[in-house]
Amino acid sequence: MHVRTLVRGLTAALAVTFALAGGQAAAAPAAPAAEDRTLAPRILTYDASAAAEFKAAVDRGAAIWNESVDAVELRPVAAGQRANIRILADNGWPRAYTSSLGNGTVYIGRQAVTQGYNTVRISSHELGHILGLPDRKPGPCSSLMSGSTAGVACTNPYPNAAEKAEVESDFGGAFARSAGVPRNVMTVD
Fold first, then answer.
1. Are 167 and 157 in contact (CB under 8 A)?
2. Strand partners, 47
3. How far is the C-alpha of 53 from the C-alpha of 118, rounded, in Å?
4. Catalytic residues
5. Euclidean distance between CA atoms 15 and 10, whole angstroms
6. What average pLDDT does the structure give for the chain?
7. 35, exposed or middle or buried, with CB in 10 Å at 0-12, 13-18, 19+?
8. The pTM is what?
9. Which of 49, 188, 56 is nearest to 111 (CA)?
10. Burial (CB count <10 Å: 0-12, 13-18, 19+), residue 174
């Protein structure tokens, strides 16, 4: 996973504040350099217990997102906990229903698999919707969110630089924007 750095120094600001207020400034332990501090990713859990024959593809799709972005991490849900993302296998076309950024239900539809589409690409693509990305159709194979328009020969399961940047922006901090896919909609690919 990439490392994102935090760009603020608090120790200096506090020292200046105390000095300006006329109070005593005590020496504080040196804070780590801004380059050494990292922001923790937002953890999203997924439940692939109903993904049937697609469980390994779902796990690989989650791992691809974890390798590709820093601001969010997808983990299998622990026993007894509720997942942010439910993943189900069915006989329809792949689709995702987003209830809010980072939450929703993914359907890995057998119809696309029967037609020859790659299961790992489908999983990564549908997880991309949950992470806030819209479809970008038509599109080239280099765009994960081009979905089925890239054709059955396309097996690329990795987001491109723009897709990664959009997810980083959406999950990148306390004041991150929440644009992207409209919420409470179903995206059928």
1. no
2. 86
3. 13
4. 126
5. 9
6. 82
7. exposed
8. 0.75
9. 188
10. exposed
Give the residue, 149 or 16, on which the prediction is more confident.
149
3-state SS assignment for residue 123: helix
Residue whose structure tokens are 């004041």:
175
What single letter denotes the amino acid at residue 171? F
Q: Tell me which H or E stretch contains 169.
A: helix 161-171
Residue 173, C-beta contacts closer than 8 angstroms, at least 6 positions apart: 39, 71
DSSP code at position 134: P
27-61 per-position pLDDT tens digit: 445 554 544 446 789 999 999 999 999 999 999 99
Give the strand order in the sheet containing 85-90: 72-76, 42-50, 85-90, 103-109, 95-100, 185-188
Mean pLDDT for the stretch of residues 96-115: 97
Is residue 162 within 8 A of residue 134, CB to CB? The reply is: no
